[in-house]
Design a protein that fits this description.
Elements lengths: L1 H31 L1 E10 L2 E2 L2 H4 L3 E4 L3 E6 L2 E10 L5 E7 L8 E9 L2 E6 L19 E7 L3
Antiparallel strand pairs: 1-2, 1-3, 1-9, 3-4, 4-5, 5-6, 6-7, 7-8, 8-9
Length: about 150
């Protein structure tokens, strides 16, 4: 009898955690939707030049992310995993020379600020929100709407 009660409670906790993770995933994906302005970024340990940031936007829909930097536009499918620490994001390019390749990254959503750090396709997922020389990682800080 005690074992059955314990297993029932344990199963309830596991199911509750799974539902909470699923809800967090849905919540994050919904909160991320919209147009974001790039306020800063870095690549390979160096800050983005001002001209790269100026006018750059990221638009997130239910299943795609579109990055516009100057004349360049990149479109990717994405998946988030709010159950990981830090939270994970996978980006699969749908256009350009990287079409079909997947980059692994991490993200942090705090109010109207979204931070994303991604590694190039085939490289390990970043563990922190900064880049180092030689890492080939890119880190973005985005603000919802305007600067």
């Amino acid at each position: 009898m005690k074992l059955r009660a314990f297993l029932t409670v344990a199963a309830g906790l596991v199911l509750g955690a799974a539902l909470a993770t699923g809800q967090a995933l849905q919540d994050d994906a919904a909160k991320m939707r919209g147009t974001w302005t790039v306020t800063s970024g870095e690549e390979d340990g160096k800050d983005f030049p001002a001209q790269r940031i100026k006018g750059s936007t990221v638009t997130i829909t239910e299943d795609t992310i579109t990055v516009k930097e100057g004349e360049q536009t990149r479109v990717m499918k994405y998946k988030v995993d709010a159950g990981k620490t830090p939270r994970a994001i996978d980006l699969t390019f749908t256009t350009g020379e990287d079409k079909g390749k997947t980059s692994h990254g991490i993200y942090m959503l705090e109010g109207d600020t979204l931070k994303i750090n991604v590694a190039p396709a085939g490289k390990e997922r970043p563990a922190q929100f900064s880049t180092k020389a030689g890492s080939q990682q890119m880190s973005y800080v985005l603000k919802r709407g305007g600067r």
